[in-house]
Amino acid sequence: MTSSDSAGDVIGAGEEFELKTLRNRGRHKIFLGYAPGVGKTYTMLAEARRRRERGEDVVVGYVETHARKAIAELARDLPIIPRKTIVHRDKPFDEMDTDAVIARQPQVVLVDELAHTNIPGSRHAKRWQSVEEILGAGIDVISTLKVQHLESLNDAVLEITGVKVQETLPDSVFDRADEVVLVDLTATALLNRLRRGVVYDLDKIPGAMQNFFRRENLVALRELALRRIAEEVDESLESFLAEREADRPWATEDRIVACVKAGDVGKKLVRRAYRLSRRLQGRFWAVHVHTPGETLGGHKREMAELFELARQLGGEVAELSGDAEDRAILDFAKENRVTFLVIGQSKRSRLEELVKGSSLIAKVMREVDHIDVLVVADPSKAKGEIGET
């Protein structure tokens, strides 16, 4: 994450084009919030107007006003790239016209709701993929995102709100952004906005306050957003120090292993290992052990999805073989100087352990001396589903 002072402040349009050609990629700035109504879109539009006043060529690629007067007023005088109409199941839908944006070649384009799922028939399945194409064309993008759409936080949001967010964004897209700005508002202030009808129509407010907009939900989601931003700041500081203190002796990094197998808890283990590796500035693996007599059968696809999730989150994967799962994991841990093992909670009763043998957790705990073990509970069932919020 780097500073995003606009090039338009110090160089002319011709020089800006030359600079983009040299770096061959636009700059990406994300306004991050934790709930609808905190002011992400409003803040994005306010910055766009300031940039226009400074002479930058700023256009709207896709902005959702949500029928809010203040947002509509800010967007009113900004040039808009006409949306593309796509017919799906005999109904017309409007999406951002990526080709038109690239053909127009503005300095900056505004793109709301980065995690949005495009209508079937679009060139890209997700809006963030369209944004990547625009950035690749050398155009700067300013976008908005809610923290609950980050893939690594999917389980945490489920546990907080009781609902599973369906539209997620790979954390790698967020991490590549040149600048991330938190648009913050206290839970009390947001609830006041909600009650005044600023966020939703008045008839929708009671239902919203009984579900997603419960105060405890908002407080927890805000904390997730603050922590995520803190991680970005920590990474920037590490990069800053590394550039200026190349000879500084850095401590050995933490290394985390998620011990995965097919089942409901697999993805949760991978996400927990990823989040732990981010906080500790370390590496992580998703590891599965093939033992004699194991038959994956219909679980092959599930295991492939687990490994793909780990790769998307920047992790590494390893498939091991051995007569004993615990011994294979411990050997891998020793060889790779692992500092944390992330293991799913055992469902075996004491009687089952007597008959079938000790659980993986029990076996590992007896053997490890210098490795921390994190036991992750089985995920709770979702009470409902939401897409964009």
The coarse overall form would be elongated
Query: Sheet with the most strands?
Result: 5 strands, parallel
Helix-strand string: HEHEHEEHEHEHEHEHHHEHEHEHEHHEE
Helix content: 40-55%
> Approximately how much beta-strand content do the residues carry?
15-25%
The largest beta-sheet arranges its strands as 2-5-6-1-8
Distance between the termini: 26 Å
What value does the Rg take, in angstroms?
24 Å
Query: Total number of β-strand segments?
Result: 14
What's the mean pLDDT score?
83
| Count of separate DSSP helical elements | 15
Low-confidence parts: 1-22, 245-251, 351-355, 380-389
What structural class do helix, strand and pairing data support?
Answer: alpha/beta
Concise account of the structure shown:
This protein is of the alpha/beta class. The protein has helices at 13-23, 40-53, 69-75, 98-104, 127-136, 154-161, 171-176, 187-195, 205-210, 215-244, 266-279, 300-312, 325-335, 350-356, 360-367, and strands at 28-33, 58-62, 84-88, 91-95, 108-111, 140-146, 163-165, 179-182, 255-259, 283-290, 316-321, 340-344, 372-376, 384-386. Helix 2 (40-53) packs parallel to helix 3 and helix 13 (325-335) packs across helix 15 (360-367).
